[in-house]
Design brief:
0% strand
């Protein structure tokens, strides 16, 4: 169904029918519920805290659980933030936190999987581009440089690619 067809259909409904359908969507689909919960109570601080907690548990062993180090977990949270319309500052904060926790994890236990380094480079590129797009680079410059310094200290396999990004953005 196209958006145009949907509009036509919605115009045929009376107010009660429309309310009924929205309530049904709210009950059936978790994403719709999350959206309306956020729209009517936009507690970004709580969302950021929950996201950071999930990311932390993904990279740092908590209560004996095995760490999985899946970049996809953070990416899913960030995508959800963008869909909900969370403030750009909060989105960048969570993206940088993901990188910070990843290098903290790698400092505790060296990581041999090549994919880890590739995915962290991709995350780094994405957050840099978002900061440039949203004009937030200066506000987060010190965190970006701290991340880069730690990557150099740990001698990540792709440290030179991180350095190229830093140089392109004139952050050093």
């Amino acid at each position: 169904m196209s958006k145009r067809d949907l509009k036509k259909y919605l115009n045929t409904l009376n107010k009660d029918s429309l309310e009924e359908q929205l309530l049904e969507l709210y009950d059936k689909f978790l994403d719709v519920k999350k959206y309306y919960d956020f729209v009517f109570n936009p507690n970004e601080t709580k969302l950021v805290h929950e996201a950071k907690s999930k990311i932390y548990c993904e990279y740092i062993a908590v209560k004996g659980k095995k760490v999985k180090m899946r970049r996809s977990v953070a990416q899913k949270l960030i995508k959800n933030f963008l869909i909900l319309g969370v403030d750009d500052f909060c989105v960048v904060d969570v993206m940088l936190y993901n990188l910070e926790i990843a290098h903290l994890s790698s400092s505790q236990k060296p990581i041999v999987q090549e994919q880890f380094y590739k995915s962290m480079l991709k995350s780094f590129e994405q957050v840099i581009y978002l900061m440039i797009e949203k004009n937030l680079l200066n506000e987060f410059k010190s965190r970006v440089l701290d991340i880069f310094i730690n990557i150099k200290k740990q001698n990540w396999k792709n440290v030179e690619q991180f350095k190229i990004i830093i140089e392109k953005c004139d952050l050093e």
